[in-house]
Design brief:
455 residues; alpha+beta; seven-stranded mixed β-sheet; 25% strand; disordered N terminus; FAD/NAD-bd_sf; Zeta_carotene_desat/Oxidored; NAD(P)/FAD-dependent oxidoreductase; Amino_oxidase
């Protein structure tokens, strides 16, 4: 923990994930005196990594898109351009006990679960959503119902709805088409003549995390990990200090919270109970990733979507089909990914139960898979992996400026209708600072749909 003897700041940021880190960097870049507070032992949030095969790897899979202007800007700022590599990747779909390549129009034609008429509808509807549709017009429309009508019933039944079900669980029918538009726009922007190129940092996101922490220290940002905010001290509609659980005070002119809405609501409850209740309307999914370190690869596919009902995981991301096994002393690495609603039974399973649930099902996908090829299995989970985006979700997203004059919030809910990513987290950090009167216009725009609501 950094020294906090002089505890008066221009800005105190609570939450040390990428949004908080980016906001701290941008504010310090403008000469502001900043403190960054993080409850856990380490900064980084979903950027955190562990050691595997002599290298570092994220707890939860990450990659970048070629059009991630905000991320590319930050990487240049931090002098890491030589560490960023883009590679051609492949996608597949597992359906009806078969793996289908899903990268080109020719692959679509070979996808047997979809009728010929619906293949045509799938192509047109996908292009419409990814290139032409305005998400604002489709917040009240269920993605599932729209896709059944316009992408075809066989497309919806054999592809789209199983994917919505495994990601959104009991909320699958309530996901707005606006979210799907944001998702497809992101993916299509990374394709060139059907080929998708995705990026990764040499040394993992730990390379970015360590460099930005170094830059923050050099710019005088006070970094406070293992530090928890107990309450706000306020006078009328103005907060003048945060009281920490150890009794210390952090005084500042402005306060920015980048923590999940559920935790922010707890801090706001004593001050503004009605506002806290509105904040709690935003719910979160958890996520589980089993990371398999193996002697052999599962396949040549980087990202395999599991479009089957009642499967315990929704995707297999074979990381070493993006970053070669030579970077991990020859080990092959794959993620088994599963989102969960907190009321689902899987939310309460321990690591051994998750292994027993997931690992045997791999043989249904890869008959050649031999459990003896597994060197080790790692298990990671978070309770706040993504927001539950239901119909009219934008009405739930809180304004960046709260009813308290100098208190602001920017978190995962502000990324909607886009998908959570490092790039989009940087976008909302910049939007928050601009709203606070701290110039962050140096951060460029490109395709991100984040930061459109609440700012």
């Amino acid at each position: 923990m950094s020294d906090t003897t002089h505890n008066e700041f221009d800005l105190v940021i609570t939450g040390g994930g990428i949004t908080g880190l980016a906001a701290a960097y941008l504010a310090a870049r403008e000469g502001k005196k900043v403190a960054l507070v993080e409850k856990s032992d380490t900064f980084g949030g979903l950027l955190n990594t562990f050691e595997i095969g002599g290298n570092r790897l994220e707890y939860f899979y990450h990659h970048f898109f070629t059009h991630d202007a905000e991320l590319n800007w930050l990487i240049r700022e931090l002098g890491l351009t030589d560490k960023l590599v883009f590679k051609k990747t492949s996608m597949g779909v597992f359906r009806n006990n078969a793996i289908y390549d899903f990268n080109t129009p020719a692959d679509l034609l070979r996808f047997k679960p979809i009728s010929w008429l619906d293949k045509f509808k799938f192509g047109l509807s996908s292009v419409y959503m990814g290139k032409f549709a305005r998400w604002e017009q489709y917040e009240h429309v269920s993605a599932a119902s729209w896709l059944r009508k316009w992408a075809g019933k066989t497309t919806a039944a054999s592809l789209w709805f199983p994917l919505l079900k495994i990601k959104f669980g009991p909320y699958a029918e309530q996901v707005p088409l606006a979210w799907m538009i944001g998702r497809l726009r992101q993916r299509m922007g990374s394709r060139d003549s059907g080929d998708e190129r995705l990026g990764y940092l040499d040394g993992s996101l730990d390379t970015l995390l360590q460099r930005i922490l170094q830059e923050l220290q050099q710019k005088g940002v006070v970094l406070m990990n293992k530090t928890e905010v107990a309450r706000m001290q306020y006078d009328g509609a103005t907060v003048h200090a945060l009281e920490l659980t150890d009794g210390r005070l952090l005084k500042a002119a402005q306060f920015l919270f980048t923590i999940p809405s559920t935790y922010f609501a707890q801090l706001m409850e004593p001050l503004l109970p009605d506002y806290a209740a509105a904040t709690r309307q935003i719910k979160y999914f958890g996520a589980i990733c089993l990371v398999l370190e193996m002697k052999k690869p599962l396949s040549e596919v980087y990202w395999l979507n599991i479009a089957e009902n009642n499967f315990p995981f929704g995707g297999i991301i074979e990381h070493t089909n993006l970053v070669g096994p030579e970077e991990y002393q020859g080990s092959h690495i794959a993620y088994l990914s599963r989102y969960f609603a907190h009321e689902e039974p899987i939310a309460g399973m321990n690591e051994e139960q998750l292994k027993e649930l997931m690992l045997p099902r791999l043989r249904e996908i890869y008959p050649h898979f031999d459990p003896e090829d597994i060197i080790r299995v790692y298990c990671f989970r978070t309770n706040t992996a993504a927001t539950v985006c239901d119909l009219h979700f934008s009405k739930k997203v809180l304004p960046c400026q709260t009813p308290l004059q100098n208190v602001y919030i920017a978190n995962m809910s502000h990324i909607y209708p886009d998908e959570r990513s490092v790039n989009n987290s940087i976008r909302i950090a910049a939007e928050a600072l601009n709203k606070m009167g701290i110039d962050a216009t140096c951060v460029p725009y490109n395709r991100s749909l984040s930061g459109k609501i609440g700012f």
